[in-house]
Amino acid sequence: MINFENINLSFDGVQVLRNVSFNVPPQQMTAVLGPSGSGKSTILRLIMGLIKPDSGRVIVDGEDVTQMSERRLQRARRKMGMVFQHNALFDGLSVAENVGFYPTYVEKKPWKQVLAEVMELLADLGLADSADKLPSELSGGMRRRVALARSLIYHPTILLYDEPTTGLDPYMTEVVVELIAEMNEKYSVTGIMVSHDLPTVYDIADHVVLIADGSATVVGHPSELLRSQSSEVIGFASSWRRHIIEYSAEIERKDEGPEAR
Ligand SMILES: Nc1ncnc2c1ncn2[C@@H]1O[C@H](COP(=O)(O)OP(=O)(O)OP(=O)(O)O)[C@@H](O)[C@H]1O
Ligand SMILES: [Mg+2]
């Protein structure tokens, strides 16, 4: 469980988050939505303790990460995996070396032992044949999968995704979305995903939080984006309204599809 409690945060005198409070339910996928520059990536960085708020607490599994020493933070981060907005793979290392980077170079585990774990994970993600390739030899979607594999190597209980499908074509988006849903289920992780992609949010989010004008609004299930009476949600959803209506109708049709009957 992750709780934001009255977080205030300014950068260079500009307040980005104002009294932000919300809960992230355990073992579900929470989507963080909001306009560009509203503070979504900042929310993820606060959870990892990479930045400190001016005031307020971020409680991760009962512990306030805003008050932790760097050493305790490093321990706390072990249970978190992060898939960044950009893949941030090491270009000079193979896929297997990228995925096994932290256990090998940071924890100094023997490569043979790491490789066995890496290969198991790569097989899970359909990347076994790419173990010896360099990132530059892979498609964008495959690179995203390698980034996901790298964050799964610790078997994290919390996975943070910053726009995991941005820049992917519709087919690869679907592949990555399916993979995220599958991994969440398989490893029972608590997921938090920043996304601009409505189908992605509808497909994998159980819970939506909107960040806009410095405040957080808990929307609830993605379908509430259409029903909510909150002025923040109405304002944000209006630009999306047509897409939301079209997409909800499509989902309903799918739900009432032949296999449901
Ligand atoms: N380290 C920093 N120093 C100064 N300003 C920052 C820093 N990090 C973020 N900001 C500012 O804080 C605001 C929120 O940034 P953030 O990256 O969280 O937005 P975002 O919602 O993720 O945007 P996007 O959708 O474009 O990724 C922006 O105005 C940004 O310029
Ligand atoms: Mg961002």
Overview of the structural elements:
The structure is a single chain. It contains eleven helices and ten strands. The radius of gyration is 19 Å and the shape is globular. Helix 7 (170-187) links the parallel strand 7 and strand 8. It has 261 residues and is α/β, with parallel strands linked by helices. The mean pLDDT is 88.
List keywords for this structure.
single chain; 261 residues; alpha/beta; Rossmann fold; 6-stranded mixed β-sheet; 4-stranded antiparallel β-sheet; 23% strand; binds magnesium ion
Q: Quick recap of the structure?
A:
The protein has 261 residues and is an alpha/beta fold. The protein has helices spanning 40-47, 70-77, 95-99, 101-106, 111-124, 140-152, 170-187, 198-204, 224-227, 231-238, 241-255, and strands spanning 2-11, 14-24, 29-33, 55-60, 63-64, 80-83, 158-162, 190-194, 207-212, 215-220.
What is the strand and helix layout of this fold?
Blueprint: E1 2-11, E2 14-24, E3 29-33, H1 40-47, E4 55-60, E5 63-64, H2 70-77, E6 80-83, H3 95-99, H4 101-106, H5 111-124, H6 140-152, E7 158-162, H7 170-187, E8 190-194, H8 198-204, E9 207-212, E10 215-220, H9 224-227, H10 231-238, H11 241-255
Parallel strand pairs: 3-8, 3-9, 6-7, 7-8
Antiparallel strand pairs: 1-2, 1-4, 4-5, 9-10
This protein binds adenosine-5'-triphosphate and magnesium ion.
